[in-house]
Amino acid sequence: MAEDMHQVDLTTCDLEPIHIIGRIQSFGWLLSFSSDWIINHASVNCENLFGQPARDLIGLNATQFLSPSAMHDIRSRLQILGTAQSVERIFEVDLLADGRLFDLAVHTSGRSFVVEIEEHESGRRRDFVSYVRPMIERMRQSETTERLCASAARHLRGLTGFDRVMVYRFSDDGAGEVIAESLNGLVDSFKGLHFPASDIPKQARRLYTRNLLRIISDVDDPTIPVIPATGPTGDPLDLSMSGLRAVSPIHIEYLRNMGVKASMSVSIMRRGKLWGLMACHHYSPLRLSYSVRTASELFGEFFAYLLDQKESDAAFERRDDSMRLHDEIMSRVAGGGSLLDAFGDFSESIGRVIEFDGAIGWVDGEFMAHGLTPTRAQFSQLARFLNTAGASTVWATDSIGTIFEPSREWEDKAVGVMALPVSRSPRDYIVLFRKEQLREVKWAGNPEKSVELGPNGARLTPRKSFEIWKEERRGYSRPWTDEETTAAESLRITLLEVVLRMSDAAHAQREQASQQQDMLIAELNHRVRNILNLIRGLVSQSKDGANTIDEFAEIVGSRIHALARAHDQVTEKDWRPSSLYDLIRTETAAYASDSLDRVVLEGPDALIAPSAFTTLALVIHELMTNSCKYGALSDTGGQVNVTLGRSEDGGLEIDWREEGGPPVVAPTRRGFGSTIIERTIPHELGGSASVIFPRDGLQAFFLIPQEHIATFETPGADPRQGVIEVPEGTDMSERLPEGVALIVEDNVIIAMEAEDYLRACGFTDCRVAGSVPSALDVVDSCEIAFAMLDINLGKETSAPIAEALRERGIPFIFASGYGERTLPEGNFTGVPVVTKPYGERDVRSAIARATANRY
């Protein structure tokens, strides 16, 4: 975890710093220029780039070496640099006008311009930055900070290929903890380990806040000096923002002690402060191109934004809890009663926001205790101590015994204290207590021995042991968090300024609450009257179609039940748009349960806005009951065909056709049901309705305007359908095997999606490969139970992998981005193929067929 130290503010370090300014990693070249483009510094290895030693370049004009187009690009990027902390990158630059392509990074350093040069990655170009957006979209779905960090570690490992990626969070004392990680399955886990603050000195932390990405491609790679050692002013060139800058020998030794060969760190900044790091380890040298590093840095910045958003949302939720507590306390004491009158209930309210094991109220000399607390006499001593600690803000400690010796008498009850002054005189308090919590902290080595004096005297020496060292802490409670302290401060202000001293404000809030209640009562009254008017209309209009009281009750009841079912369907969706397919199926089940297979639905499903749903429910209800009484569903031979379609203007077309039932005769009069069918949609929704009565069955056509349609969707599968077809006699347990699955896919986003699907199908582990050689290595080194192969891998196909799998009797399927599902060359006829974009159902079906046939 440790990082290198930098020349800036190194005088604050207690140990002698290791000066590494003026050295860069050997896989790139570095030049610095003055404003007139005179070369001031050059890396020693520039001879193999420019054809002459670096010392001979000093003082020459850059235009003698760099092509005009490259100079133009560099000048343009320097023009748009935002701040001195900004770095601009340029890709695929013909630097020397000889056809060789390079990637550049440019930034300012004092009065110099620094250009870092690396060879452009050859071969098929990948736009790694484009991977970041879908990664962020997937991470955005994380419900908690912990899941967000775990997802970030997984995605960064997928982007970079490191063996281990950790999310490392700093605590207030500078120590750090690995709170999330992603591993390749072959390295040890560091999750949950703590690292002492000395592993990352303050100088390195300051550097992390400026340069957000640091990389070491090979710890054994020699570093290259930059000459001259100092500039015209006598100062060394400041390489704080350099991506090629070499790191401290201390950090190199630290990584070697861990067995790490390559590393990368991405700073996690929150509100301008260093929240933590995304630390990456690899156990062999690993060179990342500029494009991958750029994407990683962008990924880190977006992740920091999501992290801030997630933690801010959590803070808002806690603030809401505090506000609810505020309101609850106000309601308890607004009538003028004492704060201690209902102290037990009051304490329980606080406990829902700030967890505690005991509470004491000390107001006007009155003492009230709840839970595990010291006695009155013991607390009186503590109260005098609290008066000296200050009475104008919340005061808290997780180990009162370390600062208040008399508390040792009651440490069996409590060791953590949070005091809330509730009066302007320093004598009234609400005090919360927490009992001792034995806590085992796992350190990556003994934190007391993480800094030692080395053989060269007073210099920092990295520790060599990273074995887990356990520390048991006694005399401490669970710490009071910043959020709890903030909530307590809000509560203190409530008690001090609102509850105890500002009765006028309480009176105003009571009046406001009364007004809101009056508004709610008026709104409720309005809605109840509307419902009553609707029911009265149904009752009055339904009497004409009934010959007896029982028929009348059945007609009215069925219509009210139809409205109720529609209301239930909408409320179950949290008042979101609801499925018309589900509505028709619900009505069919209610009135023609024995005729479910005779109501045929076709076309796309439509999600209907809640405001229009009950209107359609009445229409569908009348059509269904009419069909059951007089139409196609009144005997055993009829059928109702309902076809849904989308009109040219985005509206919904409903075509209701009945056939095979009794002969139809047009009615001589219009009853209430006919009126609902023909007039409701035009009157209430602004659409149109047409009903005709051919002899072979009723036909109705409706048009619903687009504003009432949320969206059109592929209809959900009928519960009687959706069975995967496989050869007879196939055992389901054989069709969906367990074990390790191989995924061959050259797009990291698609690979992670496929991994999710295969894990959902029951595979316990997944190995991902992006090329034929890496996939064959996995096949040779691991016991693979199943494989999913992308047919096209850039300039090659997965045919060699398929042949190797077939020789070993391992079932596999292909994935293809081509509509015609082109198979690779070879005898692969009959191998299941899923076409992109595919879903879990497609993959599950293909697995079943592949394992049943045993290719």
Keywords:
alpha+beta; Beta-Lactamase; 5 domains; seven-stranded antiparallel β-sheet; 21 helices
Short note summarizing the structure:
The chain is α+β, with helices and mostly antiparallel strands. It folds into 5 domains: 23-119, 2-Layer Sandwich (Beta-Lactamase), CATH 3.30.450; 127-313, GAF domain (Beta-Lactamase), CATH 3.30.450; 335-435 and 478-501, PHY domain (Beta-Lactamase); 547-713, Histidine kinase-like ATPase, C-terminal domain (Heat Shock Protein 90, 2-Layer Sandwich), CATH 3.30.565.10; 732-853, Response regulator (Rossmann fold), CATH 3.40.50.2300. The chain is built from 21 helices and 37 strands.
Secondary structure elements and pairings:
Layout: E1 23-25, E2 29-33, E3 39-43, H1 47-50, H2 54-57, H3 68-79, E4 88-94, E5 101-109, E6 112-119, H4 129-139, H5 145-160, E7 164-170, E8 176-183, E9 194-195, H6 202-210, E10 213-216, E11 223-227, H7 249-258, E12 262-270, E13 273-282, H8 290-333, H9 343-351, E14 358-363, E15 366-371, H10 376-389, E16 395-397, E17 416-421, E18 429-434, E19 439-444, E20 452-454, E21 457-461, E22 468-473, H11 482-499, H12 503-542, H13 549-572, E23 578-579, H14 580-591, E24 599-602, E25 605-608, H15 610-629, E26 639-646, E27 652-659, H16 672-685, E28 688-692, E29 699-704, E30 709-713, H17 732-735, E31 740-744, H18 748-760, E32 765-769, H19 772-781, E33 784-790, E34 792-793, E35 796-797, H20 799-807, E36 812-816, E37 833-835, H21 840-853
Parallel strand pairs: 24-26, 31-32, 31-33, 33-36, 36-37
Antiparallel strand pairs: 1-11, 2-3, 2-6, 3-11, 4-5, 5-6, 7-8, 7-13, 8-9, 10-12, 12-13, 14-15, 14-18, 16-17, 17-18, 19-22, 20-21, 23-25, 25-30, 26-27, 27-29, 28-29, 34-35
Helix pairs in contact: 4-5, 4-8, 5-8, 8-11, 12-13, 13-15, 14-15, 15-16, 19-20
